[in-house]
Design goal:
Layout: E1 8-12, E2 17-21, E3 26-31, E4 34-45, E5 48-53, E6 58-64, E7 67-70, E8 73-77
Antiparallel strand pairs: 1-2, 1-8, 2-3, 3-4, 4-5, 5-6, 6-7, 7-8
Length: 82
């Protein structure tokens, strides 16, 4: 997978969930201080993202206006420096 504009770290508006979208098509998710409890692959088609974790769970989301809407969460991208 080539680098795309959505690679980076996204965090829920309440700060409890964090997704790191790696440029190689892998992701790592942290929840409530538990570092990387979920890891897997993701694919982006246009503004749509599909997640498949390493144990088979799947989810999806949409990028709209610089915001990721995923599993009922509103996620914002952290600046590259963080």
């Amino acid at each position: 997978m080539t680098d795309h504009p959505y690679a980076g770290i996204w965090t829920s508006s309440n700060g409890k969930v964090r997704h790191e979208l790696l440029p190689d098509g892998r992701y790592r998710e942290s929840r409530r201080g538990r570092v990387n409890p979920f890891e897997g692959r993701y694919t982006v088609t246009g503004d749509h993202i599909d997640f498949a974790d390493d144990i088979g769970f799947t989810a999806d989301g949409e990028f709209v206006g610089g915001v990721l809407y995923h599993a009922g969460m509103v996620m914002l991208r952290l600046p590259h420096a963080q």
